[in-house]
């Protein structure tokens, strides 16, 4: 009984060794084909390849060039080699089947070309964009793959208020007569304009704001009004109070008067007909 078991074990072991030695190895361009317990090799089908000796029952799928990314066919797939793709001018390889338009290059109508001077692209497969214009000056110059960086704008937020106020003051000076008639109205209008004008993008404060330029303008307006009133008063005084004329009777140099004799005699001489 023990001998029988030993014999069965020995036969089984040798069968396993024989099956290991009988593994089918196929060459490039082929795969293993198994029918029952029988194995053989056969060629890879179309659009498949096998680039090394193998014991696999499957071949590898050939890649396809993605023309939408600028990748074109360089070499067709065979049973032993994979497809080879080529990137068009300006494009760079992304993977075996696709390409990309790199930073610093612009993608337009399926073509990838380097950005011109003054333009940039900071992302893959994007169009070139123009550098921004810096009113406050350039801090860092732009490149083909980055935009210009501008200096921080330090323009006062009250610049718009001052320009508006200057325009109003010029208008007031050109209409001096109207200011003389309605000085209180003009002052009130100017004050209202100053308090309600605010720079775009900034919230107007609830409390009153002091503007040195506005105060100077108000002083000029008041001085002009006072001067005009004084000039009007002087003109009226000169017109309605003329200088009195000097008469002969008031002259300091008078002619001498002859003294007559007795008053009674003079009277007789002047009136001889009286008794």
UniProtKB/TrEMBL annotation:
InterPro entries: TNFR/NGFR_Cys_rich_reg. Keywords: Disulfide bond, Membrane, Receptor, Signal, Transmembrane, Transmembrane helix. It holds the Pfam family TNFR_c6. The keyword Transferase does not apply. One of its GO terms (molecular function) is signaling receptor activity. Residues 245-275 are annotated as: Disordered. Residues 1-22 form the signal peptide. It comes from the Eukaryota. Residues 43-85 form the TNFR-Cys domain. Gene3D superfamilies: Tumor Necrosis Factor Receptor, subunit A, domain 2. The keyword Transmembrane applies. Disulfide bonds join 44-59. SUPFAM superfamilies: TNF receptor-like. TNFR-Cys repeats lie at residues 43-85. This is Tumor necrosis factor receptor superfamily member 4. It comes from Gymnodraco acuticeps (Antarctic dragonfish). The gene is si:ch73-361p23.3.
